[in-house]
Structure formats: structure tokens, C-alpha cells
Amino acid sequence: MSKGGKAGGRRWVKWIFLGPLLLIVLAQLYFFLMVCWWSWFNPSSTSMMNDQLALMREKKPKAMLQQQWVPYERISENLKRAVIASEDANFSEHDGVDWEALQKAYERNNRKHKVVGGGSTITQQLAKNLFLSGSRSYLRKGQEMIIAFMLETVMSKQRILEIYLNVAEFGRGIFGAEAASRYYYRTSAANLGVAQAAKLAVMLPNPRYYDRHRSSSYLAQRTTLIVNRMSSAELP
After folding, report:
1. Structural domain boundaries, residue 163
2. What role does it play (predicted)?
3. Taking the model in full, what pTM does it have?
4. Angle, vertex CA 104, rays to CA 168 and CA 230, nearest 5
5. 1 and 104 fall within a common domain
């Protein structure tokens, strides 16, 4: 083989290794730039919204999502406290990842020999909703954590919570606090009562299921528990 052929072969080998690394770096740069953009501008859609809309349109081609952005001050403090109490009690203190909750989730997954829970914070859930799929894997969890650190670096806690409450899924095709409040209670997000807010917060881990099973005993019991915890939830 000629020297030119050997050099060309080495270049190909180099790019086999460097190519994927470059793609990973470019992906992180894209995520970071989008996080910077959304620190000032409200996202009009998310990866989670796009996935759900695509699924809905498989059955109904003209299906539409229900979502209406409302600023932080027009979301009831009841809902803010309920979501923190239910989803992430240490939201105001951690750096995007609750390491103790993550360790407990890891131990639980090992006992079950599969990923049954992720110990995600509100920041991590926002990272997943904005950019990632709903699949469960340690690779996706790692990317979720990286984006969570980006969010915490660039945004205030209040901005993170504001975006999360506006893009979280509360039912099939129902996204954000305003759409959820009107869909379930025929009121605005600003006027949610304590029990109403607690029930919406409890639905978050599995909203499409609880949309169909609104009278489940677990939902009622968990709602009562969150109502009792809400007064101690620290708002950003």
C-alpha cells in the first residue's frame, strides 16, 4: 500500500472515533444555546409535546394540543407549592440533581432489575420535557442530568418552575397549568384552590392514566397527603 493510502486509512480510523465525539459536543452546544434562548423567550413547543401530538394524529389527523402560556405571577401559589411538595421537596436548594433521591432510585431499580424510577427533580423533568424522549435508560438519564445543570446555570429557580408549569403534561393532549385548570376545573391557573392544585400535582407522574381514572383511591389518598405538605413547600 502506498504512503498516501496508509495516511488516508489512518484518517478514516481517526474519524470513526472522533466523529461520534464531535456529534456529542455539537448536541451539547445545541442544548446549551436553546437553554440560553429560553431563559428569555418562552418555548412554543417541546419534545414531549411534539411526540404526543404525533401519536394523537395517528388516530385523528387534525388533533391539536391544549396549551396556553401564563406568566409565573398568574399561576396560583397553591399549584407551585403542590408541585414542589409532590415532585421535588428540595427544589429551592439543589443544583438540579437531588443526589440522595437519585441514589434511592438507583437502589430501587437494582432490586427490580429494571429502570422503574429515576428520582428526577423538577429541573430534570423540565430537561426531559424540553429535549428528550420518555424512554427510560441510564444513557438518557445522563443526558437529562447534563441539561439540568445547564438549566440551573443559566436560569433562575423561578424561571425553571415557570417553564415547567407551562409545559408539563397533565393529561392526553393537555399541557401546562392553564390548560389543565380549564380542562379539569373550568377555572384559570391563577384561581386554583388547595385541593385542586394538589390533585393536579399528584397526576403529574402519570397524567394520561389519571385523566382516565380520576376517582382512584390512590389519587385521593396522595392528594390529601400533598395538601398536608404544601404549607412547608419553599417557593423560589
Report:
1. 44-232
2. Peptidoglycan polymerase that catalyzes glycan chain elongation from lipid-linked precursors.
3. 0.88
4. 50
5. no
